[in-house]
Specification:
By secondary structure, the protein is α/β, with parallel strands linked by helices. It folds into 6 domains: 1-20 and 192-280, no CATH class; 32-172; 284-382, no CATH class; 398-607, 2-Layer Sandwich (Nucleotidyltransferase, domain 5), CATH 3.30.420.10; 631-734, Rossmann fold; 752-859, no CATH class. Helix content is 46%, strand content 7%. It is built from 38 helices and 16 strands. The protein has a 6-stranded mixed beta sheet. A 4-stranded parallel beta sheet has the order 9-8-10-11, sandwiched between helices. Strand 5, helix 25 and strand 6 form a beta-alpha-beta unit.
Amino acid sequence: MFPRGRGRAAVSQYVARQTTRPGKNISIHDNNCCKTISLNLGLDSDDLAFFEELKKMYNMVKRSPPVVSKLEQYFGACADPYEQTLRLLNNCQDFFNAKNKSLPIFIAEEFRHWSRSRRDRIAHLLVPQIKLDAFKLITKQNFQGLTKLVFDSYEMAQHPHVFVDCLRCLIENKQYKEACQYATMLNLHGEFGVDDFLVPLVLQDKLYSVDEFLAGSPRHQVELVQFLDSALSQMSVGDTMNPYIEEKGIPDVKYDKVHSKPWKKLVTRFAKMFKLPADLTPNLNKKRNEGALKFLIHKRFTENTFSDESWKEMVQEAVGDDESLQKEVVQLVAQYGEFREALWWARHYDVDKSGWPYGVRLLDENKLEEAVQASPLVDDWDSEPANKIEYHKLRLADDRVVLVDTADKFRGVVDTGFQNADLVGIDCEWKPSFGSQLNELALMQISTRESVFVLDVVNLAGRESRSWETLGRDLFNNCDILKLGFSLTSDFHMIQHALPELNFSNARAGFLDLCSLWKHLDKFPKVVLPNEVQGGGPSLSTLVQACLGRPLDKSEQFSNWENRPLRQSQVLYAALDAYCLIEVYDVLKRCCEHADCPFYEICDSLLTSERAAKKKPKKTSGKKRQHREDDVAQPPGPHAAPVQADELKVVCDTMLQGLGKNLRRCGIDTAILENHQDHQQCVKYHATEHRYILTRKGPFKTLSGRVPSGHCLKIVSDDVDEQLQEVLDYYRVSVTKDHVLSRCQVCNGKSFTEMPQSTMLALYDGATAAPPRYVPACYYEDESTGFTSDEDFDEDAPGHSSTAAPTSTDVGSRQTRFGATIKVDQIPRPVILKYDAFYVCDDCGKVYYDGSHYGRLLNGRLQGIVH
């Protein structure tokens, strides 16, 4: 197993052990020994005449019966068809630039078909030397389709060790990608260690080949994750890995990835992809918990959005048994001047007094122990402030909130709880996750007008299958009961994963998302909600305040929902989140009725939008029916495991420009065709930049036929938010907070320069001598599309963009380090005076700043998408 050492020493020990592993045939090759082919690849006069005739016929009629018959007759007349096929391939003009419908592919495909049907008669010709010559020839070109055909026809995987020396020669020549691909195709996993080509490919950010190799070797999955995790044991990943890079002489290293934050994402990615246990990544776990602790303390002492109980349980969840984190929580709490609380934690974890902050030791020496024990958490917000917020309360008696945590209670609720219901509210709760562990559904609340049933999923999941099936049939898949929710996507995913017995229909029969309804009602200016709310974003709390006058108290939201028994405050919080959906629905209906707005028609359109495509088409003429039958079906997606948003590259057709902007907001590398460009340009983007194509129904048939299966996605929905979800689901994309707004929305760039306010003022004053124009107050928030610097409270985060560099701008030239003009004139002077820091896109000069847009995205359009 991998040594659990520290940092650079652990990496060095691992490399030393791998390179001296007994039984490995490690030899030094020159540049030609694995490229020299023993076979004469020239064609004699008769063969050349045949080949010229074959080319003419193929250029005229392509893959037609006469061409196939002519080639098969030639194979049958050859003394050694294996040798002769290699000669034909080598003499094709486009052999080194083969494509799907080129002559080399045709020859290779026909030979594979012909040789399989006659294997018994020609198998004796398939000697190791001809396999080796075939390998050396086919690896001179890079089209994987042709390579796989030859590997298959010459049965190379049956004698893979013939090629080990060739692969080692590729490694010594730094051709890591090719060595990895061929080792995967030949199932030679056992011949190589992780440092032969896996770690170099990771450092070069060529993860696709790594993923394919690891899929066939659990041993390498473990060893690579342990190797990468060891580099997190020190403060700087670069200090640990740079000596390794120099020692191995690895070229083309992506040094922007050799930092703590992207390195942690990388380790997390592999651990999740291959479902590895958490104990394999001790350093990642520690880093995660450190970041989580800082996040919790910020929420407690800066945002004041924690109840005492939630604060305690979440800190203990993050700190665990780690003594260094136990000391750190005391230090961090004391930094906020909360010495009483810091003393409580010091005693709770029995931290050695030598590590106590001065203020905590002073408090202890003043003999205030009784006061501390009587009130361990003394905070400013525990007193009654003059402007205390009044929150919306549950308007049901306590006995109408039913915690369903036993089998008997569950059966009773399923049998009688929803007999007369035609309207319910549904919400879910799960424990926040800071590390690589997946979130698990803990509670599901179902509210009627008379009662709220809080289902304890932790205790009931996997039990009472018949009751879950009944609940699915009678409620979830019952179109006669209207089911309300808010931003339902994440709840749907959690429910379907945790409760398969529900047989939850993908049609989501009878579900109305109040968030979608709220957005839709913006199209009707006459519909005015009872209360005006400033800011807050499109959250449920904001909608409740707009409809019912007071916001929701979210102090219990960030709780450990898996702890049992549940606190009464948790149960009431969960119940209100479901019951308020019904209250909001009633208010929205009344407002629409007062404005003479067709409320039920709007709701019905939102309910049926996902089912509309599944309705049977009306009968029409035979010509039109034939056109629908000729439509190309969407093949399965190309990814077997989730991919990170910054690993996906796409190009959007001209009809999907709005989707392209949304994808950029998620941190996805997105090219967007302009209105004047033909959709065939998508194919060029795919060929040159390896981008997946996103298009609509019209061009899909043409474009999908020109790229591999799954590399072209037909977008079905007309709604931009639903289009985004289609892309994320099809390509299995995982979006985190680090990805959001990490790319320029104008040019797709990912490199930014951070500039202080003083530099921006100097640029602004130099750019225009005109007096500052009048700007409405609301302009600032509407135009702010900037980053945030505290989204995860990680010590490695200089700002939302991890690639933001310190300013080195020449104020006189007003240009970025890449030569783009800084568009400072697009930012009003009052905005510059409002913010301390700005971020300039190095590629196009667009200026961004810390505004509310980031929070609005997370709580609105990207709610339920960002993990």
